[in-house]
Amino acid sequence: MRPAGLIKFNKEYNALISLLKSLGKVAVAFSGGTDSAYLLIEATKILGPDNVIAITIDSQACPGDELARSVFFCEKHGIRQVLLKTDIFAVEGFAENTKDRCYYCKKSLFEQIKRCARDNGFDTVCDGTNKDDTGDYRPGMRAVSELGIVSPLKESGMGKEQIRYFSGSYGLETAELPSMACLATRIPYGDKITPEALDMVRKAEKALADLGFNAFRVRKHGNLARIELREEDMAKVATVRQEINRKLKEAGFTYVTLDLTGYRTGSLNEVLGKE
């Protein structure tokens, strides 16, 4: 059954459906975000609930309310889910935070997901990587490829526009969620990642969310918080400036700054081309 309304992206949609049918039975690495949520729903509709399982990592680096959101989503849509409790600091190379951190992290986590999938009777693991994810520095994608993880959205040519369109057509609550990457992406390469550092970022970003901001990042540069906001949210800062300052200092930061360039994913990768 196709999503309701006008089908704007027949080619990508049909390619995705054909690929899922060919896989037959899949375990989906499910974060709770827009991409993996759409993939999970489409796989369940095409293959049936008995042939799909969601596997969700529960670690110290999970951002915001993503874990709780993933549980709610699976319960609401009748999808079987396995929560995989993981100590992210046991992953070799994670805390050291080199520019290849994401590779080592993804490799370890997807090895665990593959084992979990096999234990539950699933040989094929899929992830929510989409076509647009190929434009940034993402060493984790190399690990995904090496481990034989299937990326149906990317392989069918679906980018964020298509995914949000079809998610909206289905009425999914995840359709307009902002991207929520691993909290480690808030800490510059070379700065050691600690549980305390991740907790500071988590508290700071929760404070911004509670104030009504959407699609943002709090990057941690030592004891300085660099806030990235969408351009349309810049003016709002003036009205809640003191509260932001207070909340982020309560989170552990000494200095609180606003990045005038604004919100963008992967801003800490901007230094890589200069090294």
Structure, explained:
By secondary structure, the chain is α/β, with parallel strands linked by helices. The protein is 41% helix and 12% strand. The chain has helices spanning 10-23, 34-47, 66-77, 101-119, 140-146, 152-155, 160-169, 195-210, 234-250, and strands spanning 26-29, 52-58, 81-85, 125-126, 217-221, 224-228, 255-258. It has a four-stranded parallel sheet, with helices on both faces. Strands 5-6-7 form a three-stranded mixed sheet, with helices on one face. Helix 2 packs across helix 7. The protein is globular and about 55 Å long. The relative contact order is 0.14. The mean pLDDT is 92.
CATH fold annotation of the largest domain? Rossmann fold
What would CATH call the homologous superfamily of the largest domain? HUPs
Spatial strand arrangement across the major sheet = 3-2-1-4
Helical content band: 40-55%
Task: Outline the fold blueprint.
Layout: H1 10-23, E1 26-29, H2 34-47, E2 52-58, H3 66-77, E3 81-85, H4 101-119, E4 125-126, H5 140-146, H6 152-155, H7 160-169, H8 195-210, E5 217-221, E6 224-228, H9 234-250, E7 255-258
Parallel strand pairs: 1-2, 1-4, 2-3, 6-7
Antiparallel strand pairs: 5-6
Helix pairs in contact: 2-7, 4-5
Using brief descriptors, characterize the structure shown:
single chain, 9 helices, four-stranded parallel β-sheet, 275 residues, Alpha-Beta Plaits, alpha/beta, three-stranded mixed β-sheet, 12% strand, Rossmann fold
